[in-house]
Design brief:
The complex is a heterodimer. By secondary structure, chain A is of the alpha+beta class. Chain A is built from 13 helices and 15 strands. The longest helix of chain A is centred in the middle third of the chain and has 17 residues. The N terminus and C terminus of chain A are likely disordered. Chain B is mainly alpha-helical. In chain B, helix 3 packs antiparallel against helix 4, helix 9 runs antiparallel to helix 10 and helix 20 packs antiparallel against helix 21. The chains are: A alpha+beta, B mainly alpha.
């Protein structure tokens, strides 16, 4: 917020109708791909108009050529190129190819759903927002249940277990102080908010998030949050939490009783009932903690969409790389057979029974799910130090996360899907 | 079923399948079951396994498959009659007995479980296995108290303090009772020393809050020597080398002492503190007393180096004196000892004695050691300001290390051009990396100065080399003031500022003033950007991030092509909290 505020205060009081532009190339010429998103975000946050040149030089941005923005770019090591007369040729190229120019008008207000303490694992989205210099607000269960989500345009979920089973680490990591603290905090919040158990609380939070999307919110989820929010929604009236979480065993007929009409992306999944296996269902294709079921990592490939017809998925896959090394998470990928009809696949591993990156609409809003925990730490373990993004300024995996942050900024009337 | 248990089952299954061709065929028959299980279709997998067991009631892979799949499907009662039938047909099969116990545990039929376990134990009165499987089956279902009882019944029945100690140790660890786990691991290593490394790695994970209590359990009076050694190794792992050596020293004397000392010394090798070096040095010296002279002489030399690193010259000299006066030791050992003793003398400041012995010992000390000692002696003379003697001791040595050292000597005399030439000749690889970097930085500074000589600057740098930082800061300021602004002044003032910033405290203000002067002057050289970065770093170290940020931004925007910009951006990120402190 402070960066944007500083930028606003340094801008002229009026804007000329035609001002020269700065192109932020997003191909291999870019010196810091991740910070480039922050520069664009701060420009629109300051009330300026920007454009996203889909499929042009890796999904470049166009911002006004102002001293404040040049200064911002120089400080952050972001490559920009002044384009005055050349812009006509650029627009011609965009018109003639599978490219499009999408106006970016309003900087989305970003909320990150995360517990108030620091978990013993990192959060890729929080790190990328911090690194890019995009302001956000941390919220948790109380803010969701009291309706505060309506104040935000974009909501991010990461390593959260909406089944209320503490990522099923309860038995595996028993005795660890961070787990004890997590259990205590969740139990306290559930009690304070009037829920009998933590699974009940998390189901209510999941419903709150679903309502937020139905009313026009943009949801982006990674890792466990993708799979568990759908399980929590489908299990509104079914006990899918192990005894350690709510004092009662899992309903033996849980699979049959799940109501998948209520979920975002998945259908027909089978619940993992073993409390000692840190896996929730067969939605995840990789089953990192599933013993013999664990699958090796490969690489996933981004789909190509028609920029002029399908600008939304096109925006979400803008990148300077088409094939990206895969990375594990408690939920790494999504089994194809459990995807609902109508889900848009944004990236998959060719020939594999799973996909990596999906998107869909719900009510007036949209959701995007991205499997895996940390794109630059493929084997992230509990207790590992957080990834230092200044060492990965060109990370294609992190770019996908930041595409999601900017996509709600796109002028809505231009969107065709 | 926990993961280790699943893997054990899978591993045993692989072994079973590969051991017997008949069974391989049976394994192939249930192959589709594995595939179905792997893809999460447990009910279908269970059907395949059930079909197999109906045709072949003692088919262990199929029964184990049923154990895995029926547990997930919450249908364990179906498995019990099948396992009972199989066990009735093959009563000697330990695998089936174990499976039966696990099924009873899964069904929470604890009385039947105990009856079956005791019945098995009666048929194998000397075996720990029935009790191990009984306790393990309960532990797998987190029935800690019941599992502990089963293991202790086994210990009481079979006798022996270390019986089932590993199982009890792991159980206590899983429940977070680290002191009890330590006691059990102590019993386990007392019974079998091979367990030592496993015990050490398991207990090393204990939370820091219980380290002292765990160590006390293992080093208490009356505890076996093996358990105390385990305690000593853990203390080393937890970076408490002095306490570790105290624990280790109390165990010396038995036949396992040499191996224990060697392992202790190796483990201490990862510690870089003075305490760590001392513990390693003492252990090596004691080990050297117990091994043949070929190993002993090397160990003593190593011990001396460690003790010197620890700053314990008295102990180092004691080790050496024992060797240099030992007439039975071979010439090679004498040479190693003599070289090490000279190192001690130089470190102790007895330069005249060291120089005399170095000349006399010409025949015994190796050429490499002699060159290294000459260099050390020359550096020690420089540190006293005795430049002539520092040069003399190098003699005719034409090695790159000696050329570099001569460069410093002529620099301190104020001959800047000659110093630059010597540093060039020495090249970037003489001596260690830090020294090479220091020479390169000095060359960069000297290249900016047009004068051939500056006795004042030489004297200031000698003051710095002698360790009088405060006097050196003032001397560098004076010497720099006499140089042209774009002819070395800024570089010398930057050096003075760096020294002042490194000194901290009252000198931080001096550093700030010096950096300010260099930044204000600006110009072509690298000094202004370097000074601004140093200034910002100083502010960040003092927690003044908000003040540091404008300096870093000024640096990046004013000197966009400076080599310091990437580092400035990184410091800026940290100052803004945009990248984690890791």
């Amino acid at each position: 917020m402070t960066v944007g505020a500083r930028l606003s205060s340094s801008l002229p009081t009026f804007r000329p109708s035609v001002i020269p532009s700065l192109l932020i190339p997003m191909d291999d010429a870019q010196t810091d791909h991740l910070k480039a998103y922050g520069l664009t975000y701060r420009a629109i946050q300051a009330g300026l108009k920007a454009e996203w040149l889909l499929n042009y030089r890796g999904g470049s941005f166009l911002i006004p050529d102002l001293d404040a923005l040049r200064r911002d770019a120089a400080l952050n090591g972001i490559r920009t190129e002044p384009v005055d007369s050349a812009m006509t040729a650029v627009r011609g190229e965009i018109e003639a190819n599978n490219m499009d120019a999408v106006p970016l008008e309003k900087a989305p207000k970003v909320a990150v759903y995360a517990p108030p303490n620091a978990a013993p694992w990192d959060d890729a989205v929080t790190m990328s927002l911090q690194y890019a210099g995009i302001s956000f607000t941390k919220i948790w269960d109380a803010e969701v249940t009291n309706g505060s989500l309506k104040d935000f345009d974009w909501l991010h979920l990461h390593h959260e277990d909406f089944t209320g089973q503490y990522s099923k680490f309860f038995l595996i990591y028993s005795g660890m102080s961070w787990l004890a603290e997590m259990v205590q905090r969740n139990t306290d919040v559930a009690r304070r908010l009037g829920f009998a158990t933590v699974p009940d609380l998390k189901k209510a939070v999941a419903r709150g998030i679903r309502g937020y999307v139905e009313n026009g919110g943009f949801l982006f989820a990674m890792c466990t949050a993708t799979e568990t929010i759908d399980l929590a929604l489908a299990a509104e009236k079914v006990d899918i939490a192990a005894t350690f979480a709510d004092g009662t065993p899992i309903d033996p007929d849980a699979d049959a009783k799940l109501d998948w009409a209520k979920s975002f992306a998945f259908t027909g999944a089978h619940i993992e009932t073993n409390p000692l296996v840190a896996s929730f269902s067969d939605i995840d294709g990789h089953q990192v903690n599933g013993g013999a079921r664990r699958q090796p990592l490969g690489a996933f490939k981004l789909f190509n969409f028609s920029a002029k017809i399908d600008p939304v998925p096109t925006m979400l896959v803008q990148n300077h790389r088409q094939v990206i090394p895969d990375f594990y998470g408690l939920t790494t990928s999504f089994t194809r057979t459990h995807l609902k009809p109508g889900v848009t696949i944004l990236a998959d591993e060719e020939g594999a029974p799973w996909v990596k990156y999906i998107h869909g609409d719900l009510g007036k809003g949209t959701w995007t799910f991205f499997g895996g925990h940390d794109p630059e730490d493929p084997q992230h373990q509990i207790g590992d130090p957080p990834t230092d993004l200044s060492l990965h300024p060109h990370s294609p995996g992190y770019r996908l996360i930041l595409n999601n942050v900017l996509f709600p900024a796109a002028k809505k009337k231009e969107l065709k899907t | 079923m926990n993961r280790s248990r699943s893997w054990a089952i899978v591993t045993s299954l692989v072994l079973v399948l590969s051991a017997d061709p008949g069974r391989t065929a049976r394994g192939q028959a249930i192959g589709p079951g594995f595939e179905l299980e792997r893809s999460g279709r447990y009910a279908d997998a269970a059907s395949v396994y059930l079909t197999t067991v109906r045709g072949d009631p003692t088919n262990l892979p199929a029964l184990l498959g049923l154990e895995r799949t029926l547990f997930v499907l919450n249908r364990m009662p179906e498995l019990l009659p099948l396992v009972q039938n199989a066990r009735g047909r093959l009563p000697e099969s330990a695998a089936l007995r174990s499976l039966e116990l696990r099924v009873y545990a899964a069904l929470n039929q604890l009385d039947s479980l105990e009856t079956i376990a005791r019945r098995w134990a009666a048929t194998a009165p000397q075996s720990e296995q029935p009790y191990r499987e009984w306790g393990q089956a309960l532990a797998d279902h987190r029935m800690w108290d019941e599992a502990r009882r089963a293991f202790l019944i086994g210990r009481r029945t079979l006798g022996g303090d270390g019986t089932l100690a590993i199982e009890l140790a792991q159980l206590e660890q899983r429940t977070g009772n680290w002191e009890a786990a330590a006691a059990e691991w102590g019993r386990a290593v007392t019974r079998s020393p091979d367990i030592g490394p496993t015990a050490e790695s398991q207990l090393a994970d204990a939370p820091a809050a219980v380290h002292d209590r765990v160590a006390r359990v293992l080093t208490a009076p009356g505890v076996s020597a093996r358990a105390r050694r385990l305690g000593a190794e853990l203390l080393l792992t937890w970076a408490q080398p002095t306490a570790a050596w105290a624990a280790m020293e109390s165990t010396l004397g038995d036949s396992e002492t040499p191996d224990a000392l060697r392992r202790f010394a190796d483990l201490a090798g990862v510690l870089t503190t003075a305490e760590g070096h001392r513990a390693r040095g003492v252990a090596l010296a004691r080990w050297a007393d117990l091994v043949p002279w070929q190993q002993a002489s090397r160990a003593r030399a190593e011990a001396v180096r460690e003790l010197l690193e620890a700053g314990d010259k008295v102990a180092a000299r004691r080790v050496l004196e024992g060797l240099t006066t030992d007439s039975t030791a071979p010439a090679e050992a004498h040479a190693v000892a003599e070289a090490a003793l000279l190192q001690v003398l130089i470190a102790d400041g007895q330069l005249d004695v060291a120089e005399e012995r170095l000349t006399a010992a010409r025949t015994s000390i190796t050429a490499d050691d002699r060159a290294a000692l000459r260099l050390a002696l020359s550096q020690a003379r420089v540190a006293r300001g005795e430049l002539d003697r520092a040069e003399t001791v190098l003699g005719e040595d034409s090695s790159v290390a000696a050329v570099a050292q001569r460069g410093w000597i002529v620099l301190y005399r104020g001959n800047l051009r000659a110093a630059l030439e010597d540093f060039r000749l020495a090249g970037p690889y003489a001596t260690d990396r830090a020294a090479a970097t220091e020479r390169t930085a000095m060359m960069a500074m000297l290249q900016r100065i047009p004068q051939e000589s500056s006795p004042e600057l030489g004297a200031a740098l000698l003051t710095l080399a002698r360790g009088d930082s405060v006097a050196a800061i003032n001397a560098l300021r004076r010497a720099g003031g006499k140089l042209p602004e774009q002819g070395g002044r800024l570089e010398v003032l930057l050096l003075a500022g760096q020294v002042a910033a490194g000194k901290g405290g009252d000198q931080a203000q001096t550093a700030t003033a010096l950096f300010d002067e260099v930044v204000r002057a600006g110009g072509e050289g690298a000094a202004p950007a370097a000074a601004e970065l140093e200034w910002a770093r100083l502010l960040v170290r003092r927690g003044q991030n908000a003040e540091a940020i404008p300096h870093l931004e000024h640096l990046i925007l004013t000197y966009p092509s400076s080599a310091f910009v990437p580092e400035a951006r990184r410091v800026l990120e940290r100052a803004k909290g945009a990248i984690p402190k890791s």
